[in-house]
Hints:
Arc Repressor Mutant, subunit A; 307 residues; alpha+beta; Jelly Rolls; 6-stranded antiparallel β-sheet
Amino acid sequence: MNSLKQAVETYAKRHVNSDGLAFTPVPGLHMMCVEAPAGDLHSVYKPLVCLVLQGAKRILVGNQKRVLSAGQSAIVSADMPVVGRIVQARVGEPYLAVAVELDMVILRELAAHMGSACAQRSSETQTLFAEDTEAELIDCVLRLMKLLDRPESAPLLRPGIMQELHYWLLSGPHGTALRNIADPDSYASRLADAIAILRAEYQSRVPVERLAAEAGMSGTSFHKHFKHMTSLTPGQYQKRLRLIEARRLMLDEGCSASNAAFEVGYESVSQFTREYGRLFQKPPKQDALRARRSIEHRVSPLTVTTA
Length: 307
């Protein structure tokens, strides 16, 4: 654990953005480093496993809430809206975490070899799992981190490491639930197909009938199962995607609020401003200014504000 923590902190010092996130050239590998608790951070996660290495964070995924501390991992098994808040971090001992996005193709292939779970009813479908981090998982993630120093080796070595990582997840305490999610006939898997359309076409109006057909459900059934899994209606989910992307455009690419609004599909800047304020608790211009000031007043590369 200490070797992984040191590797994450060293990389994050050089690469964190205004929210304390650091993305890497290794596909699907990213990390977080935050020195002080702050407000909520709204995100939409892809399926992933997140290892908390130092500090603690409270996360709300759909209707499920967990507080994760050092030595624990979270598995988010679907494209889900997530509200996170750092609850333990300080200068010199920042909150540190590393995440690896799951590959559903690998998960399904391995699940087929290891045996499928019986399909569960949607009311029993979970999208958030928390557990103590096992040594095998730490070893896999550490080896992915080492690829950052040898980028030419990543195309050859990453596939094998990812297959091993997924094997250990399927062999762990939540293996049965993960095999159910990998089952193409499960509610979670069928909803994932519809969510993929929303994520790819979030700027446009997507008819619910099209999403329901993609999931192989009636309109009524689709609404019911979608909200059960995500805690949002399809329209609210798409709105969340738009607002989160607009915030990224303003903070990371310097877009104005009006340009960001039109870029993500809004036709009215006033409507965008209202909905942005409801989600992020500040108007877009004020929120962007706060984030920029936090960057300008850092005393070290680790001093960031996030949730």
